[in-house]
Amino acid sequence: MPGLVCAHELRKTFGAVAAVDGLSFEVQAGEIYGLVGPDGSGKTTTIRLLCGALRCDSGEVSVAGFPMRTRPEQARAHIGYLPQRFSLYDELTVLENLRFIAGVRGVGERDWKARSLEILKFVGLDGFTGRRAGQLSGGMRQKLSLAAALVHRPQVLLLDEPTTGVDPVTRQDFWQLIIQQVSREGVAAVVSTPYMDEAARCSRVGFLRRGRLLEQGKPEELRRKLDGRILEGRGQPLQLLRRLAGELEAVEDVQMFGDRLHIRLARSEQALSIEKELGPIFLAAGGIGFAARVIPPLLEDVFISLVEGYGQG
Predict the structure, then answer these.
(1) Which segments in the chain show pLDDT lower than 70?
(2) CATH of segment(s) 5-219
(3) Three-state SS at 42
């Protein structure tokens, strides 16, 4: 069954730069698809292609069964879009902003207020209907933007890095709202994010680098590819431990995660032998407090391994 969002072989260039290069994925109702990658990976360009703000050089986008190239108005009618930057009117109140957006989106005069109040209660802004948008905090402005995106009951939500610049508590609240909306109304959501902890909340993720999709799948499936191959190492000085670990033949990569290392092995069965080999070498070189254990891989580990494979390919 075709998804509510279908992207097939999307390509968009700016001069000599391919911002999006052969991107394909589908998103079903009740699913959150995360576009994950660093700045410059093509996330925002992809979101803008999906909503019709940009026209792809080649490839096809369809939303709720309507091709964006030939039936853009019908496709856009099913989209709720939240851009990176706040795009509502600072001089209007919370409720006035929603009234304006509801009118633009074709919500009838008889229905707009009930729907607006319902959505404001859902996002926790029902006590601020008379406050001007310019007087809201950053987190509250994002919630108002989400309310505006939802006011016409869209089938598809396109959210471009919705939690960038907000505090951790607001980030948590915002994601709870997205998850509830998707499950409650069967919306298909596409969320771009540079944060791996947010990627882990998605139904499926697609890892992007330089406009290309490295791999996509459920977070748990992607992590499973590195099961048994991530060794957490501790010791002081950590830089010495990192250098020595990186010199071992069975070690593919070593990354620092705060006060510890993630040591990626070529094969899971090497974990015990590496632990036994690395400890004496480190202690002999003057290190102290050595400890190592196999840990479940993080999405960061998966992404780093994919990027290295892409670079070698």
Answers:
(1) 309-313
(2) 3.40.50.300
(3) coil
